[in-house]
Amino acid sequence: MFFEPRPRLLALSLGTALVSTVWLVAVLASPRPATSLEPDRADAVVQLVAEGQGLWDGHPDPDVGRVLQPNLQERQAGGLVVSTNSLGLREREFAVPKPPGRLRVVVLGDSYVFGNGVAAPERFGVHLERALVERSGLDAEVLHVGMTDWNAIACTQFLRRQLSLFEPDLVVHVLIYNDLDDASAARGFGAMASWSSQVRRHADGMLNTRHPFAMGFGGGGAKLSLLNAGIDHESRTRYADARRGIQDLVAALGATGAQYLAVLHWPDHGSVAARELLAPLPSRSRAFVPARIFRSAEHRVSMADAHWNGAAHREVAEMLYGAIEERGLLGGAPIAPWPEARARLTAWSQEGMAECGAPFDLLAVRGGEPVRSRLRFDLPDALVAAQVHGGIDAKGRAAPFASFVLANGGAAELVLEIGAAPGQGLLGHAEVSVEGEVVGRFELARAPARHGFALPPSLLERPYLNVRLRSDDWVLGGPRQQRCYSLQLVEASLASPRGDEG
At what angle do helices 14-29 and 34-50 cross, to 10 degrees? Predict the structure, then answer.
């Protein structure tokens, strides 16, 4: 889930930034005794970070993209008070190497693990650690490795590449319905970027389930997004990438003797996610947080914010204790019985498996509206937005990468109606692919145009077709000229063999 701290309106002016930069250069460049240089450098960096407008720090691994700035002390952001350790995690420092005899649980994920909407001591890992220590008398610690806006690839690769640092005995991986999204990188002064280091050429055409809200579409399109539905190439590719990240981590953990537990919290498309992400795992490595927790006012931060509140965090911790006890997920460690925890595990498992075992009803998810074979981008609504995976805003302006899905009724041709270019200076072309197969290119011209692309025979029988547009040139626009636009989409449709719309 996304966490977007509101910039403090007067937190950073150009004058402040200039003064801070000049001061930092002066501090670092001035001659000082060798014994005092490093403390002064550290003080300078701390002061400069304090002038920034956000919390984020870039990460050298493009799969990970972004962590928090390290060593923050009670930083106010988005209604939260955030402190971080030296790794840029919202967690305390921990011993490296792990002390002999200590049991270490890593809870892994995105903003639900980070703890959006709750104080750090309210998170489920804190409750789980307390239960393991106080009920079972274990030398145990639970570490939160979670970052808002991380996807399944970002979190699994962050942990996998430094397992020797964390040395977990158990990894609890919380899988959330936006884990197929692009993961935002960081930009200057700690702000969240509108591009992903994982797919840099997406620019601000990022793919995500929030796309309708993030790019100006109104209505309920965000919750209806088809990116999770598994019906087209884009969705299937995203699931495959997430599955590969999980499998890489599970294999690395297996080599160390550590256990892995996936916790699925995926309303609306749970049966698809369970098939794509959980099927390769043994039953003891699967757990569920039912969809009703997502929808319940008693478990949400607010009705506008679906993150778990304090009550939900306590219940999740209880369920996890039950799973650890029942399944022996901490090896031979003696886990004291907790009947209520076992009962919650049983109840949530039954609910989750029932939800994930039910046939996926695409029509029901869309409120009875079928997927359309024709999208008008000059007259967008929530259902148009739901078919846009990313890269197109509510005015039909497309980023260098754009992706959407159309229903196919045996169409032989894809037709794109393009409006006047969104700006001067475009020199390149757009490549068009359908279900991953390139079907043609067209020039990024300033004049409106209509283009038709014959579909390969292999695609004619597929019920849904993913269309991707990749442009090799773009212009800048939007607030502060920080958005990338390549073309103006007016309409996309699938034409039948008779020339009618599919």
Answer: 170
Number of domains comprising the chain = 2
Domain containing 185 equals 56-198+223-357
Instruction: Report CA dihedral (102, 105, 106, 109) to the nearest 10 degrees.
Output: -170
115 in a structural domain: yes
In angstroms, the CA 376 to CA 393 distance is 12
Q: Tokens for 224?
A: 């209806």
Provide the CB-side half-sphere exposure for 462 (13 A, CA). 19
Q: Which pLDDT tens digit goes with each residue over 244-303?
A: 999 999 999 999 999 999 999 999 899 999 999 999 999 999 999 999 999 999 999 999
Could you tell me the end-to-end alpha-carbon distance of the chain, in angstroms, rounded to an integer? 35
Q: What is the CATH number of the domain that holds 469?
A: 2.60.120.260
- Its pTM stands at 0.88
Greater confidence (367 vs 183) lies with 183
Q: Are residues 347 and 444 in the same domain?
A: no
Residue type present at position 433: S
The answer on 475 and 328 residing in a single domain is no
Name the band, by pLDDT with cuts 50, 70 and 90, for residue 205: confident
Identify whether the C-beta of residue 166 lies closer than 8 Å to the C-beta of residue 159: yes
Q: Which residues pair with 109 in a beta bridge?
A: 146
Please indicate, yes or no, whether residues 353 and 413 belong to a single structural domain of this protein: no
The pLDDT of residue 169 is above 60: yes
How many angstroms from the chain centroid is the CA of residue 214?
Answer: 14
Reported as a single tens digit per residue, the pLDDT across 392-428 is 988 899 999 999 999 998 889 999 999 998 888 899 9
Instruction: Measure the CA dihedral 319/248/242/141, to 10°.
Output: 30
Model confidence at 212: pLDDT above 90: no
Q: What CATH number should be reported for the domain holding residue 324?
A: 3.40.50.1110
Q: Spell out the residues 6+ positions from residue 12 whose beta carbon is closer than 8 angstroms to its own.
A: 51, 52, 53, 189
- Considering the domain architecture, whether residues 172 and 271 belong to the same structural domain is answered as yes
For the chain, give the mean pLDDT: 87
Q: DSSP secondary-structure letter at 63?
A: T
- Within a domain: residue 142? yes
Pair (320, 378) in one structural domain: no
Structure-token match 């270490």, residue found: 104
Compute the half-sphere exposure of residue 92: CA atoms within 13 Å on the CB side of its CA. Answer: 9
Q: Give the tens place of pLDDT for each residue, 461-472.
A: 999 999 999 999
- CA 443 – CA 290 distance, rounded (Å): 48
Q: Phi-psi region for residue 137, left (φ > 0), alpha (ψ -120 to 50) or beta? A: left
- pLDDT of res. 10: 28
Residue 33 CB neighbour total at 10 angstroms: 7
Distances (CA, A) of 180 to 149, 207, 225: 11, 8, 12
Whether 9 is in a domain gets the answer no
